[in-house]
Amino acid sequence: MLVGAGYAEAIGHHGELVQGLFEDDGAQLRRALVSLPCPQLKSKASFRANESDHVSVTPASREKARRAAELTINAYGRPGTGGNLAIDSNIPIGRGMGSSTADVLASILAALDWLGIEVASHDVMRIAVSAETACDSTLFKQQAVLFAHRDGIVMEAFRKALPPIDFISIDTTPDVMVDTLEFKPARYDQLEIETFRPLRSLLRTAIKNADARMLGRVATASARINERFLPKPRLSEIETIGARFDAIGIQVAHSGTVVGLMFDAMDQKASVNIDRATGALRQSDFEPKIFRH
Q1: Which CATH architecture has domain 162-291?
Q2: Which terminal Cβ of the chain has fewer Cβ within 10 Å, N or C?
Q3: CATH code 3.30.70.890 region(s) in the chain
């Protein structure tokens, strides 16, 4: 049995910049998304083997993470190896901010670190989907990707990272939690499906040209489409406040509770505008939090 411990961490996100139905290379429609990474939010995992024949996890509620570590060891190590997995995360649960996926990815990577091996990203995502049915795209840190979150495949790699975005986070229903996996997937109508095609093209152009404002327009369009499936209370009010202070758009957790007011981090006035918008949101009885890239 290998000794020592394996360690890894994975970041959370603040919902999505876009989520919908998109055509793959075979013209098949797949559910896919582009997450808005939030490196301030992290899940840290450590794995230590022991003499038992099963993997346990602390806290005990992180069953998906435990399953992910177990699947990883069975796939790349000796099946039946026992151990303890410990999770330490600052990612809010039930907000649509990737808490479960970050736990799962950190657990997979910690188990691989203990095994002393590296595997391809698509193999990591395959295990993640097996452990929790769906996952997001935060593993891909070097470039933005359109990710089929229920299939575990990259539909399009945009070759560049997202342009730097600062944002104000607003939890629109702090007393309500959303179980992402239990949430019924959106049933888009034909017009909405057709809208995703030009949105994908605009998204591609925005990333290629590092055009934050275009990215904001794409995110806003996706957020508005999602209102039919999981409406965010007072979204129009949040958007109006953002417009007063030169926000470039809004983005939402499509299966969560948070809304983000987006700002171009390269704009010299962004910091002042964010502070002023934050004050206006507080005056309207919101509880905003600022995240800078």
Answers
A1: 2-Layer Sandwich (3.30)
A2: N
A3: 162-291
Tokens representing residue 261 in the block: 């007011």
**Exposed, middle or buried: residue 190 (CB in 10 Å: 0-12, 13-18, 19+)?**
exposed
Instruction: Name the CA radius of gyration of the chain, rounded.
Output: 19
CATH number for the domain running over 5-156: 3.30.230.10
**Angle, alpha carbons 203-209-215 (nearest 5°):** 35
pLDDT (tens digit per residue) in 94-121: 999 999 999 999 999 999 999 999 999 8
Q: Do the beta carbons of residue 216 and residue 11 sit within 8 Å? A: no
